[in-house]
Amino acid sequence: MSYDDEGAWTIRAHGSADEGERYLSETKPHYDELTRGGVPVGTCLPLLGSDSLAYAQLAYRYEPGTLDYLDRALQAWVAAYEYAMDARAKQAAGQSAGDTWQVGWLGSQRVREPEHYKLKATQAWLNAHALATVRGSASATKSLVAVPPELYGEGLQHRRELAAAWRAYRNGDVAQAGTLAERAAVAAAQRSRRKGLIGQWAQLVSAPVIAATAALFSRSADTEQLLAHGFRCHREFYDQKRGLNRGDVPLRDTPEGWLSLPLAALLRLAREQGLSGLLRSDYAAEWIFAAD
Length: 292
Description:
The chain has helices at 18-38, 50-62, 67-92, 122-134, 138-145, 157-170, 174-192, 196-217, 223-238, 261-272; strands at residues 2-3, 9-11, 44-45, 100-104, 107-111, 279-281. It is mainly alpha-helical. The chain starts with a strand and ends in an 11-residue tail after the last strand.
C-alpha cells in the first residue's frame, strides 16, 4: 500500500505476466471477429462469462485505457440475456425459438432448445452486473436486473444469495438486500472452511466481496476499510505461483486476477454514496470509471 501527495492510499497489483501478452496477441483477432459482426450477436450467445471477461481483463492489463473491450463485453452479455429472454418467451408461447450457437475459444457448438437459453451460472450474471455498475450504464443495469433468476440460477449458494441481494438493492428494497447479503456471507464462510484453493477462493475472494457489499447496503462507515481489505485479499489470492489445477498457468499469470470487477463496482458505488474518497487500487484503475 502506498500514499500519494493528496493522502489517497493505493492497493498495488501483483507483478505483470509475460504469459498474458502472448495470450492477448493470439486471441485478439478471434475476439474482434466475434464482437464486431463476425457472428451476429442477436442470434448467438457470444463470449459469455469467462471468455468475454478474460479478454476484457487482458486488455485491461496490456492495453490500459481501452474501454472498447470492456464495453463490448458488457454489450455481448446484455444482448445474450435479452436473446435468452426472448427465446424463453417464444417457447412458453409454443413458438419455435430456433437453434443458437454457444461460442467459445475452442470453437462453436450448436445448442437446441430448450437448453439454449439457459446461460452460464450465476457468476456470469454477477460479472455482467458488476461491469454495468463499473461503467455506470443505467440501461445495462436495468436490463440485467430484469432477467428472470431461473435463466442464471445455477451456481453456488453464496453466489445465488448475492445475486438476489443485488436484485433487491436495485429494486429499492435495501433491508431485504442486507438480509440476503448476510445469508451470502454465511454461505461463503462455510465454503471457506474447505481445504485447498477452493477454500482460499472463498476466504480471500468471495467472502471479502460479500462483506464489503453488506457494508455498502447498510451505509456502514467501515465500507472503505472493507473494500481495502478486499483488494488486499484479491492480491494475496492471485499473487501465487501455483495454478488452480495441476499443470495450469500460475494464478499470477491468469487474466481474471488483474481486475476485480466486483470490488471496482463497489468502489464506484461507495464513492457515489460518500463512503469512500481516498482508496485507490490498480485492480480498479481510475480510467475504467469513465462515463459512457
